[in-house]
Every structure is written in structure tokens, then in C-alpha cells.
Specification:
The structure is a single chain. The protein has a single domain, classed as Up-down Bundle (Four Helix Bundle (Hemerythrin (Met), subunit A)). The protein is built from 6 helices and no strands. By secondary structure, it is mainly α.
Length: 131
């Protein structure tokens, strides 16, 4: 294992060479400003919208840094970048997002939605992206 592999991980992790594109970096900043505004409003609709934005933004980061056709494949490629608890929380936040989008009448408690958003923010921090 060379120094590059030690810093960026071996090819088996799916990590791409390089870093976030300038477009993704700008998008992350704009999206998290909007997410914070939505969180302050605390309405059910705003919280749901904040979770959808957080999940989408996290996926944009995964798309820049890891290989995979969809969110699930990219997150699996990123597995070694997270401890078990963080990885599990990312999956739970994404599943909550999917339930909001695909299940009629799904209304999770606000603290669960806020927790999912916080978990995605924390996961970005583990990738070196502070929002």
C-alpha cells in the first residue's frame, strides 16, 4: 500500500481520485444555508423539505467522491470512510427520505427528521466538509 492509498484509500473503497468539484462545493454551501432556514421555520413541510435537500446534497458529495450508479451503490463505496454508527445513521436518514417520498401518509416525528438531517451533516463533517 502506497502513500496515496493510505491517504485516499485503496481502489477497493470505490474512492475516486480528486476532490469535490467547485460546482458541488458551491451547491453544498447554498443548500445548507437553505436547510438551516427551513429548520428554523420548524413546520412539518419545511422539515420534510430540509431532509430531502440534505439527502440530495449528501448524494451530490457521494457522486463526486465515490463510484456507483445510485445513492445506495455510492454509499456502499463510501463504507470505509465512516464508522459503523455514522454509516448506519446515513442509511436510516436516507430510508426516512425514501419513505417521505414514496409512502402516502408517512409523517415521522419532527425530532426524527431533525435527527436525520443532523446525521447527514455529521457525515459530511466526517468527509471533511463542514456545513
Amino acid at each position: 500500500m502506497g502513500l496515496f492509498d493510505l491517504i485516499f484509500g485503496s481502489g477497493s473503497t470505490g474512492r475516486k481520485v480528486g476532490s469535490l468539484t467547485p460546482q458541488t462545493t458551491e451547491l453544498i454551501s447554498r443548500e445548507w444555508e437553505e436547510i438551516d432556514i427551513l429548520l428554523k421555520q420548524r413546520g412539518p413541510s419545511q422539515l420534510r423539505q430540509a431532509l430531502l435537500k440534505a439527502d440530495k446534497t449528501f448524494d451530490n458529495v457521494l457522486r463526486d467522491l465515490f463510484t456507483g450508479e445510485g445513492f445506495a451503490e455510492r454509499l456502499k463505496s463510501a463504507r470505509e470512510s465512516f464508522d459503523y454508527q455514522t454509516y448506519d445513521k446515513i442509511w436510516k436518514a436516507h430510508k426516512m427520505r425514501n419513505s417521505l417520498v414514496h409512502e402516502t401518509g408517512y409523517e415521522p416525528p419532527y425530532h426524527m427528521v431533525e435527527g436525520g438531517i443532523a446525521d447527514l451533516r455529521n457525515a459530511l463533517g466526517k468527509l471533511g466538509i463542514n456545513v
